[in-house]
Amino acid sequence: MQFAVSILLSGISVGGQYALIAIGYTMVYGILRLINFAHGDVFMVAGLLVVYMSASMPLYISIPLMIVFVVALGFCIERVAYKPLRSAPRMSVMISAIGVSFLIQNFATYYTGGLPQMYPVIPFLSDTVTIYGTSTKWVTIITPFLVVLLVIALTLLINKTKIGLAMRAAAKDFETCQLMGIKINSVISFTFIIGSALAAIGSVLYFTNYQSIVPLSGAMPGLRPSSRRSSAA
To answer: What pLDDT score was predicted for residue 227?
Structure first.
């Protein structure tokens, strides 16, 4: 019974954390029909930022500041790597996305020396609680409730606000939205901002449970260097 409860809690928690990351992928794909390969690396950067910023400032400052930096990173990625290629062939945009992913991974590898970094212990979230004889962290309990609240907030944003209406229209017919005067660049940037913020929150929840961070923590399996070497062989 204890083993079953442990597996159930872990599965629900990790599933919720992955859901926050996946929302960023799906939102961008829904509008641009593009898989943002760098999104997982934004998740990894969020974890490393907390590691380094928490060494010189309190967690209650470093975590909100990390979210701001990660949102800015997502915005800059869209503006630098994707906006100039808005009318380019889809393959060009995909190559740009993969290039950004490799750039972030290699910069993180250079900065960290490729060594695993240990995520700091977050008060309360890292504390243990016993449920039906099974010890787990509070973050495991909080994650599904927080994910539900964030999904409800996102649903209300998309269905009840002007920018949400523009996002739904862009996802339905990108070209027609441009012809009707919708500021499509602002809509896309806002989408990247939301996705990056959710990835930042997901990173706090995930790395509180699994504290080791490496530059490939957010890489998609097909883009890992080991996968490339094995395929080349």
So the answer is: 41
| Cα–Cα dist 39/28, whole Å | 10
The strand pairing partners of 134, in sequence order, are 131
Structure tokens at 64: 């909100």
What pTM did the predictor assign? 0.86
- 8 Å CB contact between 24 and 196: yes
Tokens representing 57?
Answer: 């400032």
Q: What angle do CA 84, 96, 174 make, to 5 degrees?
A: 55
Mean pLDDT to the nearest integer, 110-124: 90
Q: Which of 135, 161, 136, 182 is nearest to 31 (CA)?
A: 182
d(Cα 217, Cα 156) in Å, to the nearest integer? 31
Contacts of residue 127, defined as CB under 8 A and 6 or more positions apart, other chains included, come to 137, 138
Q: Flag whether pLDDT at 30 surpasses 90.
A: no
Q: Which two tokens stand for residue 174?
A: 């990108």
Q: Are 27 and 183 in contact, with CB atoms under 8 Å apart? A: no
List helix spans (H) across 113-223.
138-160, 162-172, 174-179, 184-209
